[in-house]
Write a structure and sequence with these properties.
It contains 1 helix and 16 strands. The chain starts with a helix and ends with a strand.
C-alpha cells in the first residue's frame, strides 16, 4: 500500500510540473440540476366566499450541464388559513395517465404550511393536476404543459411556386387542452408564396367554432424563403361527433388564391 501511495504521489507531482497537460477541475462535466419549470397557485374559497388557504402545483425540470432537459418532477404545497385544513389526495400526469396518491396511504389533514414529497421523475413534459379536500370543499389545480402533438397534416406542391403545409396540433396546458393551426411555406428557388390566413377550429355535433389569424395585417407579404405562422386557442369539445381541423389560405405567383385544410375526426 505504501509503495502504491508513493507511486501515485510521484505521478501527481510530475503532472503538476507539466501544467499545460492537465485538465482543470472546472472543465469537468457539470452535474444535472433541478430548476423551476412552472408553478401555479390559487386561493381556495368556501361557500361563504371566505379563504380556506392557498394551494400550489409546482413542476421542476432536470437540466444537464449541456443545457438539455432530461426529466420532470412535481409536488403540491398547501398553506391553510388559521382554523382550516387542507388535504391533497391524488395527482395525474397528462402524458402518462393513471391516478397516483400524493402520499402513499393518503395524506393527513394539514393545518399549517406543508409541501408534499416530489413525484417520480417523468422523462417527457406533461400537465400535472392535483386534487384534494379542505375544510371548505374540494380543490384541483394544474401546472406545466405537454409538447404540441401533431394530429393532422396536409401538404401540396404548386408548379411555379413551391410547397405549402397545414398542420393541426394539440396539447395540455395546465390541465386545459389547447389546439393550434400552422401554415408552413417552402417556396421554390426564386419563387414566392403569399400566406393570407391561418385558422384552427373544431366541429362539435354539427356546430363549428374556430379562431383565425390575419397574416395580411397590416399588409400581405410574399415569402421567398421557408416561413411559418401559428394560431391557437383552448380546445372546445369534443362532443359526440367531433372534427378537429386547421386551414390556411395563400396566394400564388399565378394570381390564384388557394385554401388548404388538415383535419381528423
Amino acid at each position: 500500500m505504501r509503495r502504491l501511495t508513493a507511486t501515485l504521489l510521484t505521478l501527481v507531482s510530475t503532472a503538476a510540473a507539466v501544467g499545460a497537460t492537465l485538465v482543470a477541475p472546472s472543465a469537468a462535466v457539470a452535474a444535472d440540476t433541478w430548476r423551476t419549470h412552472d408553478k401555479n397557485c390559487k386561493t381556495v374559497i368556501d361557500i361563504d366566499a371566505q379563504p380556506v388557504g392557498s394551494v400550489c402545483a409546482e413542476v421542476q425540470k432536470r437540466v444537464t450541464g449541456a443545457g438539455a432537459v432530461n426529466g420532470y418532477r412535481a409536488r403540491t404545497t398547501v398553506n391553510p388559513t388559521e382554523g382550516n385544513w387542507m388535504k391533497p389526495s391524488t395527482y395525474v400526469w397528462s402524458t402518462s395517465g393513471g391516478v397516483v396518491e400524493v402520499c402513499g396511504g393518503g395524506c393527513p389533514q394539514q393545518t399549517t404550511a406543508w409541501s408534499s414529497p416530489w413525484s417520480s421523475v417523468k422523462t417527457v413534459p406533461g400537465s400535472y393536476t392535483v386534487r384534494g379536500e379542505s375544510s371548505g370543499g374540494g380543490f384541483d389545480i394544474a401546472a406545466s404543459w405537454s409538447n404540441w402533438f401533431q394530429l393532422a397534416e396536409k401538404c401540396a406542391t404548386y408548379a411555379g411556386a413551391g410547397e405549402v403545409c397545414v398542420r393541426r396540433h394539440e396539447r395540455s396546458h395546465r390541465g386545459v387542452y389547447q389546439e393550434r393551426g400552422q401554415i408552413a411555406v417552402h417556396p421554390a428557388k426564386n419563387k414566392w408564396i403569399e400566406p393570407r390566413t391561418v385558422r384552427v377550429g373544431a366541429v362539435n355535433d354539427g356546430t363549428s367554432t374556430s379562431k383565425s389569424l390575419d397574416l395580411c395585417d397590416p399588409s400581405c407579404t410574399r415569402r421567398g424563403a421557408n416561413w411559418s405562422a401559428t394560431v391557437s386557442r383552448n380546445l372546445v369539445g369534443p362532443g359526440g361527433e367531433f372534427e378537429g381541423f386547421a386551414s390556411a389560405s395563400f396566394a400564388l405567383p399565378s394570381g390564384t388564391v388557394k385554401t388548404l385544410k388538415a383535419s381528423y375526426s
